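Archive entry. Fields below.
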Amino acid sequence: MYLPHMLDFIKNVEATRAARLGTEPPRMTAEEKQAVLNEFHPDYSDNGFDTIKIGPNTGQKAPKELCELLHSHSKLTGLTLDLTRTDLETDVLIIGGGGAGAAAAIEAHHAGANVTIVTKLRMGDANSMMAEGGVQAANKDTDSPQQHYLDAFGGGHFAAKPELLRRLVMEGPDAIRWLDDLGVMFDKHPDGTMITTPGGGISRKRVHACADYTGAEIMRVLRDEVAGLGIDVIEYTAALELILDESGQAAGAVLMNMLTGQYLIARAKTVIIATGGAGRMHYHGFPTSNHYGATADGLVMAYRAGANLLYQDTIQIHPTGVAHPVQLFGALVTEKVRSLGAMLINAEGEAFVHPLETRDVACAVVLRECHAHNKGITTPSGHGVWLDSPLIDMIHGPGTIQRSIPGMLRMMLNYDIDIRTSPILIYPTFHYQNGGIEIETDGYTAAIPNLFVAGEAVGGIHGRNRLMGNSMLDIIVFGRTAGKNAAKLAKSTAIGRPTIGHINTYTEKLNETGLTTNILSPILLPNYVRNVNKQK
Amino acid sequence: MQEMANVYFDGKHYTVPSDLTIMTAMEYAGYALIKGCGCRHGFCGACATIYRIAGKNALHFVLACQTQVEDGMHVATLPFFPLDKKTYNIGEIRPTDQVMAEFFPEIFACVACNSCTKSCSRSLNVMQYIAYAKRGDLEQCAHASFDCVACGICAARCPAGISHPLVGLLARRLTGKYIMPESQHTKARAADIAEGKFDAAIDEMMAKSIDEMRELYNTRDIEK
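PREDICTED_STRUCTURE:
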């Protein structure tokens, strides 16, 4: 329920709504966008960043919370582990049970490999499950892969690794075909034509959806397929560190049962890191739309083993997280709400930005509206501006909200806010790590033989900002790529003696550098417990 | 002064700020959650929760992450419930009238007690979607179960031992794969790309300098 002062401000939104219907605020010029990013987007400030002081990215900038992880000791430091023991042996070890891990597992299985997925919570506990708005692919006559490339390359500030982006757009239609064939219930016209909508910074109607449960629908189908194929899934089992062999190839991982604390040694011929993002690190102090387990584990493990990061200094703050009610603070309000026509409105009832600017630009403009123009609405958690959702049914007809964004409607109705008649109070929320572990086109890391990475843990596919619907696509495209290639490589590779010598080396370097932190990493889960006197 | 609520986790009393959710109240009380906590935004079904207000006999079935605490709440969490998973090859089975009976014969033991619907944390009409499955109406079952997050409370309450979320899941996959028409334009485009029909165009795009790309991007037309 909105507070009384908020209800007063809603009157300003209502007063201008009829006049706004059918109009479109102007798009910003390239110069205007750059100016607002420079002044208001966290990526363009030095605040909240530190310099990495160890490892391959030494001297580069990263969010200070990530630096703290990279500057911390391993959870295995000081432990004596018998690495010759084998608790689990597999061809392809997949760390992470989200969309990328599941897609990789299915393809690796079909390529003839023995596959094991380990995941620190349950299979499907991942940001994939929470993706609402959709998935891009250039599969219509009005569209083309090169147009998709142009949108993503420009939207990512011309920084994407071209070969990775090429694979993303060229394999997009086949990724959708694959999901369609597995039985994902995409929104379609009666003749099977996909219903596609626009998105921020996207020049064609290219976003496919399953209502506003796109990620959930895809994830539950993939999870069911993994189960149907009989692929081994070990839940509540986190990877703590990679195991290498004496020649530096990935050779497995040290695992830990999250419920009992027991350590396990997993040996594998190839390893795929599909550990996802870092929202729960709350970079720059933002709330997050992310899953409980989004704590950058894969980045830390791979980095200690010698893999380099790419664009670790850029993160996506989604312009529209819930600002109120406080119980939903930071929860995602899908971009699909804006794709369907909802406008961003300030306290005075003015549409202050085109609703379909790219996420980084929209985020910076919202921050400017709240903190520089002082045209936000104060909330118990800070500030917010309006997302005028009632416009959607006015534009597309009554029932559109119920049909197209039922999850959003349900979430807000739970707090007595009916988004069919009331606007949504929003504030930016940490949504995605644009950066991650650098990979080559076929999904492997150049630094560590036999190590693959897929999904949000990868850096470089999107450059320095990601478009809506390109993450759901990349987990499928690069998950499948990693799965196929890891299975193929597992057939020919020879693995030597297992070692975690790289952990000892890293520890020594940390000690030489004099870096100390109070944490051991990967942290696996955030600490939200109030009583800090408790043993962690 | 902050308004507080008296709540009971595992039967033990805690006083917590009344604007918290059940999940954040548990963390406030000192629980470091591993089980029973997932996406924290109502999509994953990890935090199935049953509560009753002291002195009242009604049970409430909710997701802990989506529900504000209330004074007098006695809370039980259901972080895991075993569902009876059937394996199948989606490419081999067909959306026949009998397919549900074959994989989930227990749906015919439904006694129409409606416990599933009454216990749904997402307020779905669960018994209705099971009824659709019984009569082989897969498409209706798929749509009626679409918002299911598989929290499993329905299955825990069912006297017939039905794994409702899995019934809905199979209905949805069969609907998505067989009943809704396949997307021909997607197939055709994927085939065209595989045949190399877009290679020249993407090569040409990638050969451009950053300045050329910038110009192209800033002046591109945007489909209305």
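CURATOR_NOTE: The longest strand of chain B covers residues 4-9.
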